[in-house]
Amino acid sequence: MDFTFNEDQSAIRDLAAQIFTDKVTDDYLLEYYKEDKVYDAELWSLLAEQGLLGVAVPESAGGSGLGFTELCLVLQEQARRLGPVPLLSNLVMGALPLAEFGTEEQQQKWLAPLVRGEHQVSAALAELGMIDAVAGQVEATKEGESWVLNGVLQAVPYGTEAACILVPAVDGDGNRSIFLVETDNASVSMEAQKVGLGAIQATLSLSNVTVGADGVLGNIGQANEIISWIEQRANTAIAGMQVGTTEEALRRTAEYSGERKQFGVPIGSFQAVAMRAADAYIDIESIRSTFWQAMWRLDEGLDAEPEVRAAKYFACIAAHRVVCATQHLHGGIGVDVEFPIHRYFLFAKHNEFMLGSSTTQISKMGEYLAANDDSGVRWMTE
């Protein structure tokens, strides 16, 4: 594995860092969350103008045609500053599968306008992190050359803003397929769901929604393959975002503990504080190392299922420990909902539960290891 970033990757990372650092300040976020916004449309347009929305989109659809690593670097810088824009849902869960499995016509219809910042796409895959008792399902019925969809799915990221949703559905023969559902259809209902970061999720209801043959992503019955492909990249991207969030949260905490004094000395000089911060640093490195390994394997086209599960596991459990520690070490002001460190806690916790918590990840890793006896050998030899 070579973790040295090339010139293009460094330039993309630096550009993203500059945009988010200049635009998304603490004062900006304080005012932003007082308003009833789903995302910052001005920041979204700026990212489009600078070409960052098309980093991993094929050149034929107006993008830069770069890889997953470059995209993760952009997401990491967004998370470092808590930029309120839907990059994960659009660029990872929407654009990447369209670029990989979509036809030329589908890419031109959905990716080209996305790169220009003219519309958004998302994917209804939150059920990956839900137990069967509460997970929704969409049924697909074949009518001529078209399909009719019915059902309800929860927690669609930025669903109220998306022009197209990737929706998994099961037909009467048990085939599971991905359909591209256009939200301007009168039979599509989208109800906003408000979470800690605002109304950034939605309930998707489909009532006799007709989708033509050109609205199938990939082939009929290919949904499980496509969903697994998306899940691996989304979970890895989330791990990368957690690196940015936790790094900045710990940096701010170190700065605060060096200035805040008790008994006439900085609290950072107390052994209990220093050890808590040191544990947080080790946790961040565990997220970083597992994230890099998963990202590299995916970009190289290698099997990465256990590596991705490990990365998301640490992105859940280790990030939780870090943001709890950083908030605790800020004392009373750490629980002030308007104080910056609290927003880092919310951002990290939101990403922790996307597509499944640590329990989900470790369970699925166990299933993989049980079915692949030689996978442990790879970990010991690489």
Give structural notes.
The radius of gyration is 21 Å and the shape is globular. The protein contains twelve helices and ten strands. It is an alpha+beta fold and 382 residues long.
Keyword list:
382 residues; alpha+beta; Butyryl-Coa Dehydrogenase, subunit A, domain 1; Butyryl-CoA Dehydrogenase, subunit A, domain 2; two-stranded antiparallel sheet; 10 strands; 17% strand
What would you say about this model in short?
The chain contains twelve helices and ten strands.
In terms of topology, how is this protein built?
Blueprint: H1 7-23, H2 26-32, H3 41-49, H4 68-81, H5 87-101, H6 104-115, E1 121-123, E2 138-143, E3 146-157, E4 164-171, E5 176-182, E6 188-195, E7 198-211, E8 216-217, H7 223-259, E9 261-262, E10 265-266, H8 271-299, H9 305-329, H10 340-353, H11 358-371, H12 375-381
Parallel strand pairs: 1-4, 2-4
Antiparallel strand pairs: 2-3, 3-7, 4-5, 5-8, 6-7, 9-10
